[in-house]
Design a protein that fits this description.
It is an enzyme of class 1 (oxidoreductase). One of its GO terms (cellular component) is membrane. It is found in: Membrane. This protein has a single domain, classed as Helix Hairpins (Orthogonal Bundle). The chain has three helices and no strands.
């Protein structure tokens, strides 16, 4: 049996990689992938604690989080396509000019 600490280390590593990607990248596609990494890290935590405590609540929440991530990707790709259509690039720093 794998100890839960290993799952927590894997999850924290994925979350840190996702956070680093959000803070350093300007491309919207990398931004979207980094958010997905952070959501997957949360799912690993939910499933690991669900397995550790022996109930299915964490796995149920993980399924809802996966559904939320799928909806987030659909909306995110729509926003990225609008950025590319209006500016010819997917740089998130240019999105500030869409307000005015």
């Amino acid at each position: 049996m794998v100890p839960p600490e290993y799952y927590l280390l894997l999850s924290s590593g994925l979350f840190c990689i996702g956070l680093f990607g959000i803070l350093t990248r300007r491309n919207a596609l990398y931004f979207l992938m980094s958010v997905e990494l952070m959501l997957n890290a949360a799912n690993i935590n939910l499933v690991a604690f669900s397995f550790y405590w022996g109930n299915l609540t964490g796995q149920t929440f993980a399924l809802f989080a996966i559904a939320l991530a799928a909806a987030e990707v659909a909306v995110g790709i729509g926003i990225i396509l609008a950025l590319y259509r209006n500016f010819g690039d997917v740089d998130v720093m240019q999105a500030a000019t869409m307000r005015w």
